[in-house]
Write a structure and sequence with these properties.
Layout: E1 3-6, H1 18-23, H2 27-30, H3 41-46, H4 55-70, H5 75-90, H6 103-121, H7 129-141, H8 145-158, H9 162-174, H10 178-190, H11 197-228, E2 235-238
Antiparallel strand pairs: 1-2
Helix pairs in contact: 4-5, 5-6, 5-7, 6-7, 7-8, 8-9, 9-10, 9-11, 10-11
Length: 252
């Protein structure tokens, strides 16, 4: 199901990453390694971050927003805000039990993208690959697969792993970039232990089929939406994000 929300961006949420990331050891993103923001996507989804529920993630967003207001030139502050917004998007405040984003979740997904883009404006010499994976998922969640792929490539090239290349393949296929998706999928298989490669190939096949169906559906939805909203304000389309997101975006 798609949802409309007034805004400058028009994208669709479609992420099915968590299980495979765990399988392949994607701990940098899933457990928030390398960030001063406690917790990570697994904590967000399971609620296992002392304080319970999603309120702890709202608190993290508030604290990191204060940090960027106090020091808007701090790359670390914007990275922490990127992670905090994504954790909120994946928390129980951000998604309902069926995985559909709440209003809080929709806004936090956009907040993730905004914070990441503000970080990039500071021209980091080497963009942080761990946080890039959060941002890539958020871009994919908003149907900006071009930026999703570019951002995930930062993570995959800096820290090559089966998980990072699998995610790159999924985002590329979802954006209709079949050749790039095939190349990333081959890398994911190559980086997988030999006894698991057949399983990964099968999962790649399934993901490719689903992602290309998504790409086709998104294209059709965009066309229909464009025709239906001619002369009307542009809206924002969202779908499910695993886990379960607050405010309208990053602090200025």
């Amino acid at each position: 199901m798609l949802f409309d929300l007034k805004g400058k961006r028009k994208r669709v949420v479609q992420i099915t990453y968590v299980a495979l990331a765990v399988l392949f050891g994607g701990s940098l993103v899933l457990f928030g390694t390398g960030s001063s923001v406690s917790g990570g996507l697994i904590d967000a989804i399971t609620g296992k971050n002392g304080g319970g529920g999603g309120s702890v993630f709202k608190d993290q967003v508030d604290r990191t927003r204060q940090a960027v207001r106090a020091n808007p030139r701090s790359q670390r502050a914007w990275l922490d805000l990127t992670r905090a917004e994504f954790n909120l998007a994946a928390s129980s405040d951000g998604s309902d039990q069926s995985g559909q984003l709440t209003e809080t979740g929709k806004e936090a997904v956009l907040g993730t993208v905004t914070a990441w883009e503000r970080y990039l404006k500071l021209k980091p010499r080497k963009p942080d690959p761990a946080t890039a994976q959060f941002a890539a998922l958020a871009y994919g969640a908003t149907q900006d697969f071009g930026n999703a792929v570019k951002t995930q490539e930062i993570a995959a090239k800096a820290r090559p792993s089966a998980a990072s290349y699998f995610q790159l393949a999924q985002l590329a296929y979802s954006g209709g970039q079949v050749k790039k998706g095939d190349q990333a999928a081959a890398q994911a298989v190559r980086l997988t232990p030999k006894d698991l490669r057949n399983s990964v190939r099968a999962q790649v096949k399934d993901v490719k089929k689903q992602a290309l169906q998504l790409a086709k559906a998104v294209k059709q939805q965009k066309k229909a939406s464009k025709q239906a909203t001619k002369g009307q304000p542009k809206g924002q389309a969202f779908g499910p994000l695993p886990g379960a997101t607050g405010s309208s975006g990053a602090a200025p």
